[in-house]
Amino acid sequence: MTRPNISGIHHITAISASAVENLTFYESTLGLRLVKQTVNFDDPSTYHLYYGDEQGTPGTILTFFPWEKLPQGRPGAGMVTAIAFAVPMTMDSMDFWKRRMAAAGIRIETIERFGEPVLRFVDPHGLPLELIGIPHPPDTSFRQTCTLPKDYAIIGFHSATATLNELEPITALLQGAMGMTLSGQEKRRYRFGMDNPEDPGHYYDLIVDPQARSGRAGCGTVHHIAFRTKNDATQLQWQAILRGSGFDVTDVRDRQYFRSIYFRSPGGVLFEMATDSPGFGVDEAAAELGTSLKLPPQYERSRAAIEKQLPALRVGASRKEELHVLT
Asked: What is the pTM of this model?
């Protein structure tokens, strides 16, 4: 069977605490757009918040389950342990983000990786994040209501980093069934590239540390990472390929804005293959993305009870202006 392309990361889903604090940080401080507010398919008492570029382009989407009473997690082996966003690689851009993070009271670490400048920090709930400067930004849509200068703004994912105790089992999957290419190595970090270098989220990095402690799920950790597949037909191809390679792959699940299959990769990271279509415009006009609560059809009859349980996000009018402006 011919292997379909994986052009990059589709989305990454993480766990946070307060939904309001999460919204304030990702929309106001990082300048992302809330493109969808809905609920967890398995737990409608909590939000599922989606952030991305103006149009909700695959490769820009970071999502959160804000479980406010969940204990703090610990990123570690068997998890995605850092999420990297791409920003323009200019001195002005990196200096802008250093000033912005300092003004927000966020401690940063400046390093270089594979010849690119990296700013490392954590979000208000402990999730490890990175901003990486790149010379040739991918084609994504700028958030029109963002007060950040376009020349400095986040332009989608750069990569994700997972921590594992051993290398060989996962490389058999990445380079074998999934067709990724080992494109670089720095000490214990291995970088794997996907098919289209012009798409956002082109890289998946592994840190191999036999002594790394296992991660503990909770606030500030990544739940799963999803890779892009073009449509339903290619997703079914992936399902057959992965099952043929010995992986326990789920049936197709309809996630309203894309369809998904899931499997546990060697080392423990939960992988998803998500379709690009139908996208976030199926139940909201482009200008209205993220402005109202959208429920999966099976929960519409319980809307009143669900809305009563969820904390108010206070978006509405405040969506049209930044909650605060940092320079």
From this structure: 0.94
